[in-house]
Amino acid sequence: MGISKSRVFMKKKLLAQQLENCIGSDELALLPRSWYLIGDAIIVRWKSGVTVWKLIGEALLTIYPRARYVLLDYGIYGNFREPKRELIASRCAITSFETIHRENGCLFKINPMRIMFSAGNLHERQLLNGICDDEVVIDMFAGIGYFTVPIAVHSKPKKILAIELNAQSYQYLKQNIKLNRIEPRVVALHGDCSKLTPTNVADRVIMGYLSSEKYLLSGITALTSGGTLHYHEAVPEVLYPQRPIKRIKRAALESGCEIKSIGCRRVKKYSPGVLHSCFDVTIR
Ligand SMILES: C[S@@+](CC[C@H](N)C(=O)[O-])C[C@H]1O[C@@H](n2cnc3c(N)ncnc32)[C@H](O)[C@@H]1O
Questions:
Q1: How many angstroms separate the alpha carbon of residue 232 from the centre of ligand 1?
Q2: Which atom of ligand 1 is nearest to 124's Cα?
Q3: How far is the CA of 140 from the centre of ligand 1 (A)?
Q4: Ligand 1: does its nearest atom lie under 6 Å from the Cβ of 41?
Q5: Ligand 1 center–CA 21 separation, angstroms
Q6: Number of the ligand 1 atom closest to the C-alpha atom of 232
Q7: Is 64 in a helix, a strand, or coil?
Q8: In the predicted model, what is the mean pLDDT of the chain?
Q9: How far apart are CA 276 and CA 118, in angstroms?
Q10: 125 near 146, Cβ under 8 Å?
Q11: Which of 76, 106, 108, 258 is most buried, by CB atoms within 10 Å?
């Protein structure tokens, strides 16, 4: 679910009103169309041609009186999905970038300078609300608890195993489990999910990492009969949905599991011509 066009327009108009007396018409036309908040941080995506980022940052702080600082985002990189970001404005001297983001009745402690939080995945996080009662869930790419926390807050799972490889994200995952009072139902493990995912134990497995094809076999073999896998993949639009389906079927064949159903959906646009897609796979 993206932000509607009219809302994007409203936001841009608000920013333009703040800056119309300070910058020229060329710069006004180039202003970013949207940004988002993580706790008291504002994240604005870098855009080619824009030179007045400091002024944009200061204007955003005026629009959002409760925000503390503004980060310019150059993208998310590497296996750990780490953001490259720069401070462009702040209300006071920054001693720590740490903030607490509230979403969907959950609290997420995070350092947005170092760790990503995808605002565009809110609908995906909400989809699992209340459907995991009595289940054993494995969150193979848990991050700071993007899926684990809302599942444990809004359902009564028997157990959630949350696995995260990045030491920094793992530290926040542990803090977020405490912050949301969801221990002891949640067990956090630090390490590679291809080594730590147990077999034949889970009613539900979440693979929320967009390049996780090579982990599909671990995901599928973790399921018990009748279990469901949520497999996320960044896929060129022209290859949706056939490429991920082919990969899922190949892994199922290798594991000896029979697929009962595969559902798919477009989560959001990931980059030009590329989708963030999700496949819900139930095995017999
Ligand atoms: C970007 S997050 C997922 C984002 C999330 N689904 C959301 O809603 O915003 C993916 C996480 O997988 C972790 N990761 C990557 N490879 C891993 C592996 N082999 N085992 C466990 N975690 C891994 C990364 O460190 C990262 O924290």
A1: 11
A2: 8
A3: 8
A4: no
A5: 43
A6: 6
A7: coil
A8: 95
A9: 11
A10: yes
A11: 108
Q: Decide whether any atom of ligand 1 lies within 6 Å of the 81 Cβ.
A: yes
* Half-sphere exposure of residue 154: CA atoms within 13 angstroms, side-chain side: 18
What is the number of the ligand 1 atom nearest to the C-alpha of 79?
Answer: 15
Is the CB of 192 inside a 6 Å radius of any atom of ligand 1? yes
Dump strand ranges (E) for 91-201: 99-103, 106-110, 136-139, 159-164, 186-190
d(CA 77, CA 67): 25
With 0-12 / 13-18 / 19 or more C-beta atoms within 10 angstroms meaning exposed / middle / buried, residue 273 is exposed
CA–centroid distance, residue 195 to ligand 1 (Å): 15
Domains of the chain as residue ranges with CATH: 5-97 (3.30.300.110), 121-283 (3.40.50.150)
The encoded tokens of residue 241 equal 């949905």
The pTM of the full predicted model, rounded to 2 decimals, is 0.93
Banded pLDDT at 1 (limits 50, 70, 90): very low
Tokens of 110: 């995070």
Instruction: Copy the structure tokens of residue 10.
Output: 């409203």
State the distance from the centre of ligand 1 to the C-alpha of 163, rounded, in angstroms. Answer: 9
* H helix runs in the chain, sequence order: 5-19, 25-30, 53-63, 122-127, 148-154, 167-179, 193-196, 216-221, 242-255
C-alpha 248 – ligand 1 centre gap (Å): 19
Q: Could you tell me the end-to-end alpha-carbon distance of the chain, in angstroms, rounded to an integer?
A: 31
Distances from the Cα of 160 to the Cα of 58, 104, 136, angstroms? 42, 19, 6
CB crowding 122-132: b at 16 or more within 10 Å, else e = eebbebbeeeb
Q: What whole-number percentage of the chain has pLDDT above 90? A: 89
Q: Is the pLDDT of residue 3 over 70?
A: no
Whether the ω angle into residue 241 lies within 30 degrees of 0, i.e. cis, is yes
